[in-house]
Design brief:
alpha/beta; Rossmann fold; 3 domains; 4-stranded antiparallel beta sheet; elongated; binds adenosine-5'-diphosphate; binds magnesium ion
Length: 583
């Protein structure tokens, strides 16, 4: 049984408390199919999220089988299924793959057979078996809703919360989905609460909760609604609601509550007697819960490595399915180093020494010095420029790697986290996937450019700095991605960040010293460039020094700073993925 006692959810707006859900008291028995209806903006979604524990109630209490949810711990991830309004599946995956990933992330199956059995059962139950190999992108609206349900049913939740799963569907699909939800509530005492804006098919529900401006206006059997609201047709209920204040509806409801609650109970007993509703006995329910708890303590939720490998496998699959993304990645990996080699000629020029050809007279000596200096300047600026170019291109690749990585799939991730996914497994899978891209991009850049114009210094050290700059920008943009609200914001911020690297690095223009002291620590490009310059042979190193106004830093220090950038970014990404961010 689910019981809400005077549950309110209040937000602070302009210094005032605004209740979005106000003193809601309802009792919902096991095996119950309830609709939550009401005009748009009346607080249906907010109520559902409060029940799910996504909105902590500001007042009142929720009880689940007489357990106080706020005091004795919230629902276990396997006890509750929440199907939000938005799609929760990845377009490039098939129905089967989506359900499989959901199962692997949420349920600990003893064997592959058990896993397959579970998946088949859920597909069967939701009528998706015949289209299990179809990609999510080609599914119709109704099929997508079924998939959303299937992905929640994998853990066999006893409470299923659905938010507008029928909105936007054609009448036939809508009817099918309502029937499906109805059937799901007839088994094993599963409770199904469905938020809907539509007033069609209400007769299939056991009870209807009518909300108005955050208050309960009615909760009773569907056939009693027209009588209660003194209307002829259910369609007239919404206009009728506006004829008096929410406060007034609330008060008149207080008077009739008990009567309609009894009616719900009587209907329920009738259904049980006629065998249309199967409810497990109280004892079975208690045993069930003890079993779930015991299993949970052991390994009901899949472990870190299991979740990690499921996510990583799925990430690679999505990557390779998206041909555009693969092509873009390959084009970037191949073309960027080619761009750099176009400039490699000048960097390989010879730098003569003064002593190479001793001069006899004074004028020739001066001319010689000038010519050597001019050589030095040419080679120095070409070498410095090429290093900076590589650094900037790898920064750009870094931001392209990760700016959308988390922000672009946030609703899906939040949903999976709610279902028991560990943020640590999620972040680890992202880091591993991105590390592969980073290694391929930076090493290929280092080797390719080196092949056409050998790096005049310690190649390994140079390659290490290229790797570090790419890793650091990837990590920083991953952090941005985890902290921003939308993928667009994250992309924009990441691009600005890369754009500012070049002018603020000091490699092209020297900044005023007092500004430089503040900006430098944060400019990854400077540290990678400076470290690589330090890895050059002394002669080339001097040539570079002769053309720049900026002070260079010792190589070890550059390593540490870049390492610190990566570490701080990963900590920020960790904070970002742990923080709940719905909507
Ligand atoms: N986190 C929030 N902060 C401010 N206002 C909110 C928040 N969540 C919902 N609202 C507002 O509360 C009201 C109820 O929202 P919602 O529960 O989504 O309505 P429904 O699902 O019934 O259409 C709306 O006016 C909405 O704008
Ligand atoms: Mg809503």
């Amino acid at each position: 049984m689910l019981e809400l006692k005077d549950v309110s959810f209040t937000i602070r707006k302009d210094g005032e408390d605004v209740p979005l859900v106000d003193q809601v008291s309802i009792v919902i028995p096991r095996g119950h199919f309830m609709a939550i209806v009401g005009p748009s903006g009346c607080g249906k979604t907010t109520l559902l999220k409060t029940i799910a524990g996504l909105n902590p109630e500001s007042a009142g209490a929720l009880f689940w089988d007489s357990r106080n949810l706020s005091e004795e711990g919230d629902f276990l991830p396997s006890e509750i299924g929440y199907v939000p309004q938005f799609s929760i599946a990845y377009d490039p995956l098939t129905v089967d793959e989506s359900v499989e990933a959901a199962t692997r992330l949420r349920v600990c199956c003893r064997s592959t057979e058990a896993l397959d059995h579970r998946i088949d059962q859920v597909l069967e139950e939701t009528g998706l078996t015949s289209i299990s190999d179809r990609q999510v992108r080609v599914l119709s609206g109704g099929q997508k809703r079924r998939l959303g349900l299937a992905m929640e049913l994998v853990s066999d939740p006893k409470l299923l919360l659905c938010d507008e799963v029928t909105s936007g569907l054609d009448p036939r699909s809508e009817r099918e989905i309502v029937h499906l939800l109805h059937d799901l509530s007839r088994k094993d005492g599963r409770m199904v609460l469905s938020v809907t804006h539509s007033l069609a098919h209400l007769e299939l529900y056991d009870s209807i909760l009518v909300m108005y401006e955050g208050r309960v206006a009615f909760h009773g059997p569907p056939d009693q609604m027209t009588h209660y609201f003194s209307v002829v047709d259910t369609e007239e209920i919404y206009p009728r609601l506006t004829t008096q204040s929410a406060e007034a509806w609330h008060h008149s409801w207080q008077k009739h509550r008990g009567f309609y609650q009894d009616m719900i109970e009587k209907n329920r007993l009738r259904l049980i007697e006629s065998g249309k509703l199967r409810i497990p006995s109280v004892q079975v329910v208690a045993e069930d819960r003890a079993e779930t708890l015991a299993a949970q303590d052991a390994t009901e939720l899949p472990g870190f490595f299991s979740q990690f490998s499921t996510l990583l496998g799925r990430r690679w699959r999505i990557f390779f399915r998206d041909r555009g993304q693969v092509f873009l990645q390959l084009a970037i990996i191949v073309c960027f180093p080619i761009l750099v080699t176009l400039f490699s000629d000048k960097a390989s020029g010879n730098i003569r020494r003064y002593s190479d050809s001793p001069q006899s007279d004074f004028v020739a000596e001066i001319q010689e010095q000038q010519s050597v200096r001019s050589d030095q300047a040419k080679v120095g600026s070409a070498v410095s420029g090429i290093i900076m170019f590589q650094v900037v291109l790898l920064s750009l690749m870094g931001s392209n790697n990760s700016a959308r990585e988390i922000a672009g799939e946030r609703p899906i991730y939040e949903k999976e986290k709610f279902g028991g996914l560990r943020p640590s497994a999620y972040l680890a899978s992202k880091m591993t996937f991105l590390a592969c891209l980073v290694i391929a991009q930076s090493l290929w850049m280092a080797f390719f450019v080196n092949f056409f114009g050998t790096f005049r210094g310690d190649f390994i050290e140079h390659a290490a700095f290229l790797l570090l700059i790419n890793a650091s920008m990837t990590a920083i943009c991953l952090a941005i991605s985890s902290l921003m609200r939308t993928a667009e914001q994250a992309s924009l911020l990441s691009i600005y960040l890369v754009g500012f690297q070049l002018p603020l690095s000091g490699a092209v223009l020297a900044l005023p010293e007092h500004i430089e002291a503040f900006t430098r620590p944060f400019i990854s490009a400077y540290w990678a460039w400076s470290g690589s310059v330090d890895a050059l042979q002394p002669q080339v190193h001097n040539a570079v020094k002769s053309v720049i106004d900026t002070a260079l830093s010792a190589q070890n220090f550059c390593f540490y700073v870049l390492g610190a950038h990566i570490a701080v970014a990963l900590v920020a990404a960790w904070v970002g993925v742990r923080r709940p961010q719905w909507d």
